[in-house]
Design a protein that fits this description.
Blueprint: H1 11-16, E1 19-24, E2 29-30, E3 37-43, E4 49-53, H2 64-73, E5 78-81, H3 99-113, E6 117-123, H4 126-143, E7 150-157, H5 173-176, H6 181-190, H7 192-199, H8 211-222, H9 230-233, H10 236-242, H11 249-256, E8 261-267, H12 274-284, E9 289-293, H13 299-302, H14 304-313
Helix pairs in contact: 2-14, 3-4, 4-11, 6-7, 7-8
Length: 318
């Protein structure tokens, strides 16, 4: 497989183009007076806003290469964010990290930005966040409540779209959520070299991962003591299984397929969510556009140009 070279964007460069805004997590809303800060980054344009939801553990920085391709070829507005606990957002240790609170932050941001409709582009564990956002839409429609922000399309890339499709090896998220997680993360916080073995599996074996790229990933993840809170944020697989019925993609598409265009992206060598691609083909048939990209889990780094093209080509429902 040929990997198309992309200029390396530093974590500092990525985050310096955004801002940290106050967020009230108890009464979800963007509030300048709140001491809790969340990172957002905007790119101006015309048309419907694309909301880019981050992967784990690289956060919004994982979109840096994709944004470079999008900004040079497409002109729709884009907004990126980091959930609490990731990227350049605050990372409190006593925070109730969950898919539900991440969805709260996304909705609060949409409300604060006045976004009436959007295309959601989700990567990795944000696919589960997207399923919760769509489940809330179903709930509100059934209750006769208005939608503050209408999702017109949703692209789910390299993430957990089926609760029985996760294939995370024991030495990744399962290890972090075990009692050993809190013991080993301080080492990864201090040294990118010690953290590198944990990150290497997200890339395919043939990807020419450089020390410089690994250092920037570590910089993005370790900001504000970020590696130390990874065990607290790594429970999304178990949470997905617990709420499998609510986050059943087939159920959601059945309810919203006429209102929301869906797309699924997977990778041939993804050791974490590669099974999701097979399940999508079996269970979703012709109800979604399914795209397979070469490479490993982190298509945002390995195939940013192809992923950007898929994002731009995703149709919307009027």
């Amino acid at each position: 497989m040929t990997h198309r070279a992309s200029a390396l964007i530093s974590a500092q460069e990525w985050f310096s183009a955004g801002e940290r805004v106050g967020y009230d997590a108890e009464r979800p809303g963007i509030n300048p007076r709140s001491p809790l800060r969340a990172f957002i980054r905007r790119a101006a344009g015309t048309g419907v806003t694309r909301t880019f939801l981050p992967g784990w553990p690289d956060g919004s920085y994982g979109w840096a290469k994709v944004e470079a391709f999008l900004s040079s070829r497409f002109h729709f507005p884009r907004i990126y964010l980091d959930y609490i606990g990731h990227g350049d957002s605050d990372k409190p240790r006593d925070y109730p990290y969950s898919t539900f609170e991440r969805a709260d932050l996304v909705e609060a941001l949409w409300h604060a930005e006045g976004i009436a409709q959007t295309v959601v582009v989700a990567f990795d564990y944000s696919c589960i966040v997207s399923l919760e956002l769509l489940a809330r839409r179903i709930d509100r429609e059934r209750a006769g409540n208005d939608q503050r922000t209408r999702i017109t399309a949703c692209l789910l890339a390299n993430g957990g779209i089926f609760a029985d499709g996760h294939t995370h090896a024991w030495y990744t998220t399962p290890l972090l959520t075990s009692p050993l997680g809190a013991a080993i993360t301080p080492i990864g916080q201090r040294s990118w070299r010690m953290f590198a073995p944990f990150l290497r599996p997200v890339f395919s074996r043939g990807y020419p991962l450089s020390a410089a790229e690994m250092k920037e990933l570590h910089d993005a993840i370790s900001r504000r003591d970020g590696v130390r809170v990874l065990p607290a944020t790594a429970g999304f697989v178990d949470e997905h299984r617990e709420h499998a019925a609510r986050w059943d993609l087939a159920r959601i598409i059945s309810a919203l397929g006429d209102e929301v265009a869906f797309g699924v992206v997977g990778s041939a060598e993804d050791p974490f969510e590669g099974e999701q691609l097979r399940l999508a083909r079996e269970r979703l048939a012709d109800s979604v556009e399914i795209t397979e990209l070469a490479g490993g889990h982190l298509t945002t780094a390995e195939q940013p140009d192809r992923l950007a093209e898929v994002i731009a080509a995703l149709p919307e429902r009027s």
